[in-house]
Design goal:
This protein is an alpha+beta fold. It has 15 helices and 22 strands. An 8-stranded antiparallel sheet has the order 13-12-9-10-11-14-21-19, sandwiched between helices. Bound molecules: ligand MV4.
Length: 447
C-alpha cells in the first residue's frame, strides 16, 4: 500500500480523506492556504504544508505549489477530493509525469468525459439512454434550426466544455433559438475557450438522479446504485438521498448495466458518477459523467455499507475492487442535508464569520462530516458548506424522522445557516411524498 498520500484539498473532504488514510495505515500530508492555517484538517494530518495565499488560484489551484509540496514530503500519491483540480486532466497528467499517482481516473478518461459531445457520443453507442438531439456539435444557425425542427421545441443548447449548468440556453421557437445559439457559443468561448455547442430536447421540470460507480485497473467495474439530487438551487445541491423515491429494482438494473458498459468503453478507473435527468414519465436520459468523488458520496456509503474513499485509494494502488456487483445491495434509506453558511431568508446570501457555538447531533443513524468547531472562522474565499448531515433508517420515513430530530439537535451560533431551510423541506408534503422536481425549491420553498 502507499505509505504517504498528499491531499490536494481543504475542509471536510480533506478530513474525510485523512480518516480513510488513518484506517489504512497511510501517512497524510495536508495543504493549506494562509486562510486555512490552524484548521482542524491540518492538525489531524501527519504533516501540513502552506502552499500560498487565500485566493484558490494562488493555493489550491496552483499545480507547481502542490507538486512541490508532494516532492518535498515524498508523497507517493495525491487525492484531489472534489472541486479545485479534481477534474483537471492536465493536473492528472502532471502527476503521472512526476511519478505521483493521481487518485482518480486517467488524464485520458477525464479529458474524454469532460468533452460533453464526445461523452454523449460514446455513451449513446454503448446503450446508455440519451436525450434526442444533435449528432455531435452544431456548426451554424442553419443546422441549429434544422435539428430543432426535427426534435421539436423547447430545446436546450449546451456548451461541450461546460457542465454543472454552465453555458446553457433554452429556446422555445426559431427566433429565440438563433439568439440562444449565438449567445451560448460566445459564452462558451469566453468561459471555456471553446465555442463548441450541441443541442438537446429540453426536458421540463426533470428529476436529477445519478449513479455511483467504481472501476479497478484490472477491468473490474461495479455500480453502487443511485442518489436522487433533485432538491437543488442554482445548480447547488441542497438535499440528496438514496435510494431515489422513483427508482424500481428493474430500472436500477437496466440503467446500472448501461452505466457499466459505458464506463468500460472509456477504460474508466477509480470512482465516478453518471448523471441522469428523469422526465415526468420516469424515463432516464444521460447528462454527464463526473470524474471525481462527489460531495454526496456519504449517502451511498451509508446505504451500501462501503467506504468509497478507502476503495479509491486501494484501486489507485492497483488492487482489485474489494466487492463484486452481487454483493452490493441497498440497505434502508439515507438522506443528506448540506448545511451551508448562508441565510435562507436572505436569498441564501453567504454568511461567513466566526462560529461561537457548535454542537453536533448524534445517536442512531446520524453521520456528520465537518471540519468546524466552536471558535472556527469560516473563510470567505471558498464554498460555504460547513457540514454534511446524513441520517439513515430502515426506510425513508425513519431517515426523515431522524433528520428532523438531528436538525433540531444541531446548534450553530455566530453565523446564519441553512438548517431552518432543511427543517422546512423535511416538513414539506411534496418532499415527504417523494414527489419533487428541480423546480421544487423555487416553487414550494419561496426562494
Ligand atoms: C438539461 C435540462 C433539461 N433538458 N438538459 C443542468 C446541469 C447540467 N448537468 C444539465 N442541466 C440540465 N440539463 C435537457 N436536455 C435541465 C437541466 C437543469 C438541471 C438539471 C439537473 C438538476 C438541476 C437542473 C436545473 C436546471 C436545469
Amino acid at each position: 500500500m502507499f505509505s504517504k498520500i498528499l491531499i490536494a484539498n481543504r475542509g471536510e473532504i480533506a478530513l474525510r480523506i485523512i480518516r480513510a488514510c488513518k484506517e489504512l495505515g497511510i501517512k497524510t500530508v495536508a495543504l493549506y492556504s494562509t486562510a486555512d492555517q490552524g484548521a482542524l484538517y491540518t492538525k489531524l494530518a501527519d504533516e501540513s504544508v502552506c502552499i500560498g495565499a487565500p485566493q484558490s488560484a494562488k493555493s489550491y489551484l496552483s499545480i507547481p505549489a502542490i507538486i512541490s509540496a508532494a516532492e518535498v514530503t515524498d508523497s507517493e500519491a495525491i487525492h484531489p477530493g472534489y472541486g479545485f483540480l479534481a477534474e483537471n486532466a492536465h493536473f492528472a497528467e502532471v502527476c503521472r509525469d512526476c511519478g505521483i499517482k493521481f487518485i482518480g481516473p486517467t488524464p485520458e478518461a477525464i479529458r474524454k468525459l469532460g468533452d460533453k459531445v464526445a461523452a454523449k457520443d460514446v455513451m449513446k453507442k454503448n446503450g446508455v439512454p440519451c436525450v434526442p438531439g444533435s449528432e455531435g456539435a452544431i456548426a451554424d444557425e442553419k443546422e441549429a434550426l434544422k435539428v430543432a425542427k426535427s426534435i421539436g421545441y423547447p430545446v436546450i443548447i449546451k456548451a461541450s466544455a461546460g457542465g454543472g449548468g454552465r453555458g446553457m440556453r433554452i429556446a422555445h421557437n426559431d427566433i429565440s433559438l438563433v439568439n440562444a445559439f449565438h449567445t451560448a457559443r460566445a459564452e462558451a468561448e469566453t468561459a471555456f475557450s471553446n465555442p463548441t455547442v450541441y443541442m438537446e430536447k429540453y426536458i421540463e421540470e426533470p428529476r436529477h438522479v445519478e449513479f455511483q460507480f467504481m472501476a479497478d485497473e484490472h477491468g473490474g467495474a461495479v455500480q453502487l446504485g443511485e442518489r436522487d439530487c433533485t432538491i437543488q438551487r442554482k445548480h447547488q445541491k441542497l438535499v440528496e438521498e438514496a435510494p431515489s423515491p422513483i427508482m424500481t429494482p428493474k430500472i436500477r438494473e437496466e440503467i446500472g448495466a448501461s452505466v457499466i458498459k459505458g464506463i468500460t468503453a472509456v477504460n474508466y478507473t477509480n470512482a465516478g458518477t453518471m448523471e441522469f435527468l428523469v422526465d415526468k414519465h420516469g424515463k432516464f436520459y444521460f447528462m454527464e459523467v463526473n470524474t471525481r468523488i462527489q460531495v454526496e458520496h456519504g449517502v451511498t456509503e451509508t446505504v451500501m455499507d462501503v467506504d468509497l474513499i478507502k476503495e479509491q485509494i486501494r484501486v489507485a494502488f492497483g488492487e482489485k475492487l474489494s466487492f463484486q456487483q452481487s454483493q452490493l445491495h441497498f440497505r434502508g434509506h439515507a438522506i443528506e442535508c448540506r448545511i451551508n453558511a448562508e441565510d435562507p431568508d436572505k436569498n441564501f446570501m453567504p454568511s461567513p464569520g466566526k462560529i461561537t457555538r457548535f454542537v453536533v447531533p448524534g445517536g442512531p443513524g446520524v453521520r456528520v462530516d465537518t471540519q468546524c468547531e466552536a471558535g472556527y472562522s469560516i473563510p470567505p474565499f471558498y464554498d460555504s458548506m460547513i457540514a454534511k448531515l446524513v441520517t439513515s433508517g430502515k426506510d425513508r420515513a425513519e431517515a426523515i424522522a431522524r433528520m428532523e430530530r438531528a436538525l433540531d439537535e444541531f446548534i450553530i451560533e455566530g453565523i446564519k445557516t441553512t438548517i431552518p431551510f432543511h427543517k422546512r423541506v423535511m416538513k414539506n408534503v411534496m418532499f415527504r411524498k417523494g414527489e419533487v422536481t428541480t423546480a421544487f425549491v423555487e416553487t414550494y420553498m419561496g426562494v
